[in-house]
Design brief:
By secondary structure, the protein is α/β, with parallel strands linked by helices. It is built from 12 helices and 7 strands. Helix 7 crosses helix 12 (301-322).
Amino acid sequence: MESKLFIGCDIAQDSFTFCLRSDTEIIFQGEVSNSLKSIKKWLSDLKKVQRLDLSHITFCMEHTGVYGLILMRTLHERSLIVCVESAANIKLSLGLQRGKNDKVDARRIAEYAMRYTDRLKHWKPKRAILQKLQLLNGMRARLLKTRSILSRNIQEVKVFMGKEEYSILKKGTQAALSGIEKDIKQADKQIADLIKSDENLRKLSRLVTSVHGVGMVTCSALLVKTNEFQDFTEAKKFACTAGLAPFDHSSGKSIRGKTRVSHRAHKDLKTLLHMCAVGCIGRKGEYKDYFERKVAAGKNKMLVINAVRNKLVHRIFAVVRDQVMYQKNYQYNLVMS
């Protein structure tokens, strides 16, 4: 159904500011508490007091993580049009802007929805089990980060301070580090059990992990990011999102930069794929041979590692597309009719 009205929502932790506009003018603005009760009352007021047909309104907002979940889920449950866009997309699409506050941001989001209504994708929540998997992945990542901070601090004290200081710090954090290590192992088990409990996730994980070098942690992140390989069906598009696709950097006669990947990427996922690639080239096999051959030919090491990451992504998407386990020595048999 074509929208005639657009509401831009600038969401914060405690409240969100909204702006209602048509394709020609701003109608009104306001602020709503970011709670289920307040959101339901707001929607009721829009319908009864303002006499608006909510099915003709496009609700657009920036992706703000958990802050927008209550609003997004409430709108989706009522079968209303919900669009969740990247903040960078909105900012870059409107040209040069000056000043910033909640009301201005809400107006800009509403303007973005009005201008690019033909490009907007309607938001749909992931399956409940995938949302749990995403939560576990995030929890595990934060545990790893905390462990890294504590461990690095201990090593720095060991190098630059005395044995007494090192002993004090090590004893003081030993219990915390042991607890974190235990929690990480528990998170790994929960992730594995959750994937095994669902038929589709179990099937996809078997396909993805059949690719040499890809483990369960990376597989779990891929399942969440690709929404079970529904949001991404092409390896090249996913490689771009993960920051693996190289782009030209040249213009006219004066700019002749190196072809390079973009910094606008999903950095956590890129890190996981990088670790997979490094693990592959560190063991005997085709990846190691490929890496050594290209480096010997004068190629930059990071460029070759990025090529290995791309190989992994293309193989993952190939096995998911064909629903066939990865075969190292696969032979294509041409069927003659």
